[in-house]
Specification:
326 residues, mainly alpha, ABC transporter involved in vitamin B12 uptake, BtuC, 0% strand, globular
């Protein structure tokens, strides 16, 4: 099969998977809804399912898909930027900065927009701190960036541990759920649509640079010899991966393994051509997190599990399998 036809087939199958995942998310739950009632609600016909669909499940489903896509896209970009298959969206401390901001908001008694705002601010602060320290005198390398990110993440982890130790008992549950990844607060359609818009915009920005990213993955010297402006491209990739991670973490908390595992799984199916890998990773990551969140809120219904627990339970054996294959 020609490569372009294979690429279109893979993307079509991933789009179908996303649609099926959304349908499952809207019908499954502590109260199972027939698909006919869900379809009527989506078409604007007022029925008993409309309140459940629009008030609970649709915003959460769209947020889960957007966050999964953002994390998978950021993971694919980070693995190219650092030329390290173990890189994930959290390796440079963005998640730690967001965690400090979110837990500070909870300690201050804020909720909703306050937590999201401080989490996003913390993520941006960590991003700027890592970039500024790693850039230093201008000798910016993958190793220097990675080590700086690890140190900043460790510092954020220490601050988070301090906050957990001084928090009141009634605040600890919310803090721990946020740190493990939790979409139960995604009940407003506007933030979910905003996260989806950021995902679409990030893919649109990244795709024109797919050829340069293919060359950068082979090494900066070879990419520069072939006419790639390596330094500006690195800054763009770092900024785009960090901002997409910040939006995802602000929306869903620290959901692990999606950004690490999904790019590897997609490479097995489509290869390492960034022109196909980036949109395929976004679709696959969105579907994976959407299915995981549906399982998290139904497996022990009416209780809900943090979705990050399920992604870790899925991601660990999958990663060990991929490691064994290589």
């Amino acid at each position: 099969m020609p490569s372009h036809r294979r690429a279109l087939l893979v993307l079509a199958l991933l789009l179908l998977l996303g649609a099926v995942s959304l349908a499952i998310a809207l019908t499954a739950g502590s109260i199972a809804l027939p698909w006919g009632d869900v379809a009527d609600a989506l078409l604007g016909r007022d029925n008993a399912a409309a309140a459940v669909v629009f008030g609970l499940r649709l915003p959460r489903a769209l947020a889960a898909f957007a966050c999964g896509g953002l994390l998978a896209l950021a993971g694919a970009l980070m693995q190219v930027l650092l030329r390290n298959p173990l890189a994930d969206p959290y390796v440079l401390g963005v998640s730690g900065g967001a965690g400090v901001g979110a837990l500070a908001a909870i300690l201050l008694g804020l909720a909703g927009a306050g937590i999201a705002g401080l989490a996003f601010g913390g993520a941006l602060a960590a991003m700027l701190l890592v970039f500024g320290l790693a850039h230093g005198d201008g000798s910016w390398t993958q190793t220097r960036l990675l080590l700086t990110g690890v140190v900043v993440a460790a510092g954020c982890g220490a601050v988070i541990a301090l906050m957990l130790s001084v928090a009141a008992d009634h605040q600890l549950r919310g803090m721990l759920f946020w740190l493990m990844g939790d979409l139960s607060q995604a009940v407003d359609i506007a933030p979910a649509l905003a996260a989806l818009a950021v995902l679409a915009l990030a893919v649109i920005i990244a795709l024109p640079f797919a050829r340069e990213l293919n060359l950068l993955a082979r090494g900066p010297e070879q990419a520069q010899a072939l006419g790639v402006a390596v330094a500006p491209l690195r800054r763009l990739v770092y900024a785009l991966a960090s901002l997409t991670t910040a939006v995802a973490v602000t929306t869903a908390g620290s959901v692990g393994f999606v950004g690490l595992i999904v790019p590897h799984l997609v490479r097995l199916a489509v290869g390492n051509d960034q022109r196909l890998l980036l949109p395929a990773a976004a679709l696959a990551g969105g579907s994976l997190l959407l299915l995981a969140d549906t399982l998290a809120r139904t497996i022990v219904a009416p209780q809900q599990l943090p979705v990050g627990v399920l992604t870790a339970l899925i991601g660990v054996p999958v990663f060990l399998f991929l490691l064994g294959r290589r």
